[in-house]
Amino acid sequence: MRAANHARHHERISRFLSLILRHAPDTIGLALDGNGWADVAELLEKAARHGTPLTLDLLRDVVATNDKQRFAFSDDGLRIRASQGHSLRSVDLALQPQTPPDVLYHGTASRFVTSIRQAGLRPGARRHVHLSTDIDTAVKVGTRYGVPVVLTIQAAAMHALGHLFYRADNGVWLTDAVPARFIAFPISRA
Which domains does the chain show, CATH number per domain? Predict the structure, then answer.
């Protein structure tokens, strides 16, 4: 398989896994446990029946090479789950609260800034607001939604007032919501 085709195939499989392991396992009749884990053998079988044939080697390769480390295998390699980003309320990743860095970043599109100024950051369909430790990642995230804007989150100040933060297996920081008073908005140059 050519490199470009290989990359597109991996991206297609990654999107499929995101759908199944984050949002809609019932699409292929897959069951997730309370911590979001799915049985690998069952995933392979049901994906094939659904028209997305996967091999264990392909699955391992997609997990290992995913640029955002969206997925993780259990220590014994028999189960797989999404590292974060679930919309399923029944999934609890069992992450322990952690002390965040002083600041974290959130990438969004410029068209959402007015709403965020009024209501802060809310998780929308997901369970948590996603934050990063670096500006480059936030820019990449914001670019997916339009003209990117990077918001600086005063995470230490939030934490000091009792807001909980979690760090997913892939390094993404999660919190329930970010009130607007903890967000530093970029200065408009318009």
Answer: 3-82 (1.10.10.970), 104-184 (3.20.170.30)
